[in-house]
From TrEMBL:
Name by which UniProt lists this protein: Zinc-binding dehydrogenase
Top-level taxonomy: Bacteria, Bacillati, Actinomycetota, Actinomycetes, Micrococcales
UniProt-recorded Gene Ontology molecular function terms: NADPH binding; oxidoreductase activity, acting on NAD(P)H
Species this protein is from: Pengzhenrongella sicca
UniProt keyword annotation of NADP present: yes
Enoyl reductase (ER) domain span: 14-324
Keyword NADP: yes
Keyword vocabulary terms for this entry: NADP, Oxidoreductase
Residues spanning the signal sequence: none
InterPro entries per the UniProt record, alphabetical: ADH-like_C, ADH-like_N, ER, GroES-like_sf, NAD(P)-bd_dom_sf
Pfam families: ADH_N, ADH_zinc_N
Length: 326
């Protein structure tokens, strides 16, 4: 192994141009840590927020990246054998310590999930954070059971598409939204039973299909549409606030009686690697390999294209999950 590696370094917050590819020392794993040879990593809006200086945690200079997929190169504590395929995510990765935008990354062993798959790295790199967020929003947030109905607000995002896929696999009837009529086919291809065009009054459209309201919903757009999403859910149902694609995070002068319909429960999900058990990951990979599930890969980039990748993410033109393959 060489002494240096290529990595994306951010010295301080700013626009996409602050993402600089440099040669830096290869990190060394201590007992309890794992050194991963990164083959691919996904792009996430939380990394965009961190790069802008909008994140609630983290420090500069930093190698960003909250996830990575690759192969174990060293694990001094013996937790995993060299050569094992793994994914790693969250837990301060790319914020409190250097993350996945590099040829190598060192992470705590508890954040590493082993798997076995012959899928391409461009596909594998798209999965960790996307699947963890979609699975956690269902298993921890909404907690639906087979036969129930689920609304996904922000359905053409990578997490939204994964939610449609998981929802159908788990026996749910999925209603999913897009602002563009031309993208309804994308929702249906991912597994949505009903593709709705978001005109700001999704609750009325939902209740034309499910008069009593859906059993659960995952909010991926933000607080600017949350009130309408709450009105789409039946009494006793649950809305899980998971995403903020609109970059609108907080509710000024929140008055619960104005916002919350009687009996509708509001919760939130922001997960960790522990929320994605290895069997769940392996089952999903096997479903993808068998053609029972799909991974919404948008654009694939090289490490040298990281600035353009962030520009595309800001412009909303990636069309699924952006992935960098090394």
């Amino acid at each position: 192994m060489t002494a240096t590696m290529r990595a994306v370094v951010v010295d301080g917050p700013g626009g996409p141009e602050v993402l600089q590819v440099r040669d830096v020392p290869v990190p060394r794993a201590e007992p309890g840590q794992v050194l991963i040879r990164v083959h691919a990593f996904g792009l996430n809006r939380s990394e965009l927020h961190f790069r802008r200086g909008q994140a609630s945690s983290g420090s500069f200079p930093r190698i960003p990246g909250i996830e990575a997929a690759g192969v174990v190169e060293d694990a001094p504590g013996g937790e995993l054998a060299p050569g094992t395929q793994v994914m790693a995510l969250m837990g301060g990765m790319g914020r409190a310590f250097d993350g996945g935008y590099a040829e190598h990354v060192v992470v705590p062993a508890a954040q590493v999930i082993p798997f076995s798959s012959e899928l391409p790295w461009a596909v594998l790199g798209a999965i960790p954070e996307m699947l963890q967020t979609a699975h956690g929003s269902l298993a921890v947030g909404v907690r639906p059971t087979a036969g129930q109905t689920l609304l996904v607000r922000g359905g053409t995002s990578s997490v939204g598409l994964a939610l449609a896929t998981l929802g159908r696999l788990r026996g749910l009837t999925v209603l999913s939204t897009t602002r563009s009529p031309e993208r309804r086919g994308l929702l249906e291809g991912a597994g949505a039973h009903h593709a709705l065009v978001d005109d700001g009054d999704v609750a009325s459209q939902v209740r034309e299909i499910v008069p009593g309201g859906v059993d659960g919903a995952v909010e991926l757009i933000g607080v600017n549409v949350l009130c309408d999403t709450l009105r789409a859910v039946r009494s006793g149902g649950t809305v899980c606030f998971t995403g903020m694609l609109s970059d609108e995070w907080t509710i000024p002068e929140f008055y619960p009686l104005d916002w919350l319909p009687n009996g509708v429960r509001l919760t939130a999900y922001s997960g960790e690697a522990a929320d994605l058990p290895a069997p769940v990951l392996q089952d999903f990979l096997d479903d993808v390999a068998r053609g029972r599930a799909s991974v919404p890969v948008g654009r694939v980039y090289r490490l040298d294209e990281i600035v353009q990748a962030h520009r595309d993410m800001e412009a909303g033109v990636v069309g699924g999950k952006g992935v960098v393959v090394l």
